[in-house]
Each structure stands twice: as structure tokens, then as C-alpha cells.
DNA sequence: CAACTCATACCATAA
DNA sequence: GTATGAGTTG
């Protein structure tokens, strides 16, 4: 037992051994957060305070859940069965499958991912003749998800204008459509579970009593619904025996745009009467200058719970800052530095290049490629999101639940079998008339269209019959053949990769069976074994029988259903290149939770980082600053910051000021590789334009600029000052003489178009 | 009905 | 520069 607590610092030890009361752990970057979380669980079990089945640990990503499980198995001699460790969505899926009747869902309900949801909404809008100019499908989707993430149904929303009334109406219709089709979206998994437990008291009390200790990772990322869900599980305020142990860092809250509410941290403190607030401020990752930079930067935020990281590692190197003429020269500088690092013995996988938006990666990728340096870009398409894989999945979904109209529409004419737009319209009309699914409406369509459609139905039915007794991998194989997907891609010239991906599904199915504890030979279609016999039935104090979701998956769903859930809930890795010795490229968002010896943070320009859209959002700049904080704290030993004077973005050249974050970093911690001219960036800019040798495209650009400036006396790229708007850069000049107007980027004051004969501008 | 061209929009993202 | 969607042609 003591070796469990060995090597913990005082703060960590205090957190791990807290009494059984709700607690909030403010865990700074690199402070050993996951370690505290897992050791806490191990300690609770080892000291006999709780049995494994009393533990519920919730994470946001499968990766985090897996990591916890791995660490726990290493720490505990006993097996981890009985503990519930998983993502919000994974746990909800399990609960809903078990209690599908109470939740009013078919046992084979299917999960829509974001793509599916969007297409479902497009379908809905079309069906109800909604003008998709006025109500773009994406907006409707954000509206619906936003409502669900706050725990609101359509009837809970009081619309404040006609447009919103319409959206609420669409929300209602969307939910009805999903219910009809037997599908749920991601937010619905949580909301359904929440509603189920709210309304079913015995069930709620059963789980509340079971889970004596609930632990949450990345608590700052919870949305309103997730917090309500946790409160319900714990029994509000922990009064029903549940104890909530929340770990998070308000300074690393970077997901407000998807509904995360940092306010949950203070709400939790208040509502659960948290007396145990522990700050983990000892950082085991970064050298001093890097940590100083992070601390000083984040101090500019007003809304903080307050935390200051410290390290024993010594100052280390200063943060290196580089100003480039263009995005291209920024990239070549990165190559140069990367080469130096590798030459000095750095491993490529310990070098990370971070950027604010994916669009920035192209130039850097190109440069790395030309230089022959292996690299790996995070965040591409994941396995189960690839078109061909989604097609195959759609066929499988129809095997399990033919009323899933999304799946039906995806493959009814793919590969092409002569079922076109008109046929579908006819079918849709029939389905609407009888209020049934497209699949069920096929018999009502006559004529040529009807023949083609019933051919498709026969294909599905036939395949289902044929595969009745087959195992999941066999089923997948047959579906790939019968659907003619393999044959189709064989005729495409770029189809080889796609065929390979499809073939891979068979092995994915095999692997899935062994990981989930299904027998390899178990018939894929066979429904769950009788639940009562699985020993999952529990009788609660009221004598009511509760089926507890704590049972092997095989008792809750068929191998096929389980595999389909898996495909939706674990999209898989994006590339199989893991383990390769490669430079790591990713957005700052996806870098959260990772660490590297050497980190480049690129594109530090106003409008890009902080992103221009952030100034419009409430507290947007504070979130961007937290994002920068996350980026800085990824680095262990060496950190590079860079920005470019000009940048091609979305096919046009942009001229941005350097990021305001440079003014918020401590000077002592920085080392400028290019001259920094005081007091502001403008001087440096000017000298760079006048003196720096221009090469390649830079020269062409300069030429363009020289031409454009003719007559007005001003030049694109020139820095100016305006009495009202402050300092800015001329981005474009139109017209000439008295009609000359300049488009000027005033940074935080925004982009303005000023008449050059009227506006009073000063050169800088 | 299917294959093609052309125009348009674009921040970050896990489940 | 790429992905979606509408419009156009065989």
C-alpha cells in the first residue's frame, strides 16, 4: 500500500488520500493529474473504502479512459472488472442499451456521428420545405446540439423571435425523425440517459448507491448537461452517498465553442460544498523560462481560480522568437531549426509543430516533405469516417435496423443501381404519407422505380438471411461482397486504398470481438442472451428488479450492434503511422494533454492567433489566451515562437500584425532571433521590408505591392497610425488620386476601409 | 439517371 | 487549396 503513495509530492498525496467527500483538484499543466486520479482509485480500493464496482470514472476521450485503465491494472493486483471507466458517451450507450425499454429506444438503436446528423438535418429541412439559405443545416445542427448540451428539449425553449421559433420547431421535428428511425446523436445519448434516470427513481437510486465514488477528468471541459448528469449520478450535492472527485484546470479550458462551461468548476465548489480544494502547482514538465512565459501570459486573464506553476528544473533556455517575411520563410526557418535539433541528437518525435488552424499546416508540410524530414499530421480523417468505410457501415446498419433512413439513403444507390433522385422522391412521398421509414415504404412504390427499390430491399433481406448464423467477421466479409462495394472500387483507378480499408474491416471486426469478450464464433445477429440469466439482475430495497448495466456487453447487445456502436463511438486512429520516428504536426487544440522536448508555436499573428473570430465572442480573447497557455506548456526544454508578415490563407495574401501575446510575455524569458525594435512591432516591420533580402515569391510580392501603391503615396504592407483606431497595416489600396481608398487592418479595432484623401494617417 | 463542370465557403473538436 | 452543392450535359 505504501509503495502506491511513494513518490507523490505533498499536494498529490493530499489529493489522493482525501476523505470520502467531494473534492476539486486544480491540476496545472504537467502536474501529474492522471497519476493523482488513478492513484486515488487504487488507494480507495486498496484501503478497503470501496470495492471496484463502487467506482465510476468518466473521461472525454477513449484514449484517456484507456490510459487510466492501463495504469490501474499496473497498480492493482486485482482485476479492474466491475469498475466503470469510460467516456460520457460510452457509459451512456451502455446504460441505454440495458434500459432501452425504459428509455423508449429499440435495442438496436444506432448512433449518428456528426456527419450523419448533418445529413439527417438536411433531409429534414428538405422534407419540410425549409429554406436552407435562411436556415443553414449547420446552424440548425448547432442550435439543436447547443440545446441538448444544456439539457433542453424543444418544449423547454422559449423562442425570442420568429427565426428561433422555427428552429425550435425543427428541433422538435428532428427528434421525432430520430425516434422514428431508431437513431440517436451524440448529445442525445447523454440527454436520454439523464432523462431516464431523472424520471425513474428506483433506477436512479440503484446507480447512486452503487457508485460511491465518481471521478471526473478534465472537469473544465464539461458542458451543462454533463454536469447535470454527474450531479444526478452522485445525487445532488452528494447527498445520496455519491462522492464527486473532479480534476481540472480552468486555465486549460479551450472548448467553450463546443459547449464547455468553466463555470461548472465554481458551481461544483458551491453546490457540493467543496471543502477540499487542492491545487497541484508543481510542474514536472517544463523548464523555468517556459513556465514563466506561461504564468505571466495567463495572468492577463481576469476570470481565474488562481494558480501559479513552479518547477525545480531551473531556468533552462530562453524562448526563441522568430519573425519571418512570409509563411514560406517561416516554414523554411522551421526546417532549418528542425535540422539543427536532429543534428544535436533530438528525436524527431520529440519535435512538435503547433498551429492555430489546420489550413496553416500545408506550407509546413510541404517544406518538411521537400526537406525529406518524416512528419506526421494529426487530425486527418479517422478510419471509421472514411467514405468507403461509412458505406460499408451503412449496409451493416441496415442489417441491424433497416429503418435508419440515413443509412438507407447513403447506400440505396451506392454503388449505382439505377435508383435516382426521382425514385427517391417518390419513395419519400410514400414514406411521409404513411409515416413510416423509407425501407418500409418500398412496397408502396410501383413501376420501374419500385422494381429497382425492391431489388435493393431483396439485397438487404437476402444478405441478412444468408448471414443468419455467421460470426461478425464473416458477416462483414459477405456484406462487402454482396453490396458490390469491393467490385465497385476495383473498377476505380484510385480504388486500391479504399479496397484495402474495406478489407481491414474484417480484421477490425475480429479484433473487436476479442477485445470486448465476445466469442469469436458467436452469431453476429444474435440478440443479447436472456438478461436474467446473465446474473445482472439486482433487486433493490423496494423489491423492484433492476437490471444493472454492469455485465459483459454480450448480454446487452448483439455483436453486430456492439460493433456499430464501437464504429460511432471510437472513430479509430487517423493514420497507422504511429510509432514512426516523425516530426509531430497538429493544432494547438489537439496538442492538449501531450508534451514534447521541443515545440514550435507558429503563426502568432493578430487575426490568426488570437483568431479574428474570437474578438466577436464573449470572453473570446481570454479563451485564445488559454489556448496559447496550453501551447506553451506543451514544451519541456525548448520552445520556439514564430510569426510571419505576410501569409497566404484561403487563397489570398494577408498582412497581419504580430500577436498581442508577445506583449504579454516576460521579456527576460524571450530571446529574439530576429531584431525586435522597440517599442512596438512597427519599427521591426519597416526594417524588415526595407532591408531584408527578398527571395522567390517574396520578391514577386514586393513587385506587386510596388505596382499597387502607384499614385496614392501609400504602400501595401505599410504601417500607419490613426487617431481613433490606433496602429494598423495597409492591406489593400483601391483607386487612385482623390478616390484612393485603403483597406487597413487595425488589429483589435478591426478592418477598416478609409478614404486616403480624408483620413488622417501617420506613417510609423 | 449519371457524370461532369463551376461556384462558394472556410477556427478549433471528441464522442 | 479543398470539399460540398448546384447546375449542365451526354
Layout: helices, strands, pairs:
Layout: H1 2-5, H2 10-16, E1 23-27, H3 33-46, E2 55-59, H4 62-75, E3 84-87, H5 88-98, E4 110-112, H6 114-127, H7 137-149, H8 162-181, E5 183-185, H9 186-199, H10 201-210, E6 213-216, H11 224-234, E7 243-248, H12 263-271, E8 276-280, H13 288-298, E9 319-326, H14 327-343, E10 351-355, H15 361-370, E11 375-377, H16 387-400, H17 405-411, H18 421-434, H19 438-441, H20 447-466, H21 472-482, H22 485-491, H23 495-516, E12 537-539, E13 545-547, H24 559-569, E14 583-587, H25 588-591, E15 596-601, H26 620-632, E16 635-649, E17 652-655, E18 670-672, H27 681-691, H28 696-708, E19 719-722, E20 726-734, E21 741-745, E22 751-755, E23 761-763
Parallel strand pairs: 1-7, 1-8, 2-3, 2-6, 4-5, 6-7, 9-16, 9-18, 10-14, 10-15, 11-14, 15-16
Antiparallel strand pairs: 12-13, 16-17, 19-20, 19-23, 20-21, 21-22
Helix pairs in contact: 2-3, 3-4, 5-9, 6-7, 6-8, 9-11, 13-26, 14-15, 16-17, 16-24, 21-23, 22-23
The structure holds a DNA duplex (15 and 10 nucleotides).
Catalytic activity: ATP + H2O = ADP + phosphate + H(+); Couples ATP hydrolysis with the unwinding of duplex DNA by translocating in the 3'-5' direction
Keywords: ATP-binding, DNA-binding, Helicase, Hydrolase, Isomerase, Nucleotide-binding
Domain UvrD-like helicase C-terminal: 288-593
Q: What is the architecture of the largest domain at the second tier of CATH?
A: 3-Layer(aba) Sandwich
Class from helix and strand fractions: alpha/beta
Average pLDDT level: 86
The radius of gyration computed from the alpha-carbon positions, rounded to a whole number of angstroms, is: 29 Å
Q: Can you summarize the main beta sheet?
A: 8 strands, mixed
The level 1 CATH classification of the largest domain is: Alpha Beta
Separate helix tally: 28
CATH topology of the largest domain: Rossmann fold
Helix content: 40-55%
Low-confidence stretches: 529-536, 539-544, 678-710
Number of strands: 23
The general outline is globular
CATH superfamily of the largest domain: P-loop containing nucleotide triphosphate hydrolases
Total individual domains: 5
Beta-strand portion reads 15-25%
How far apart are the first and last residues' alpha carbons, in Å? 67 Å
EC number: 5.6.2.4
Binding site for ATP: 27-34
Domain UvrD-like helicase C-terminal: 288-593
Domain UvrD-like helicase ATP-binding: 6-287
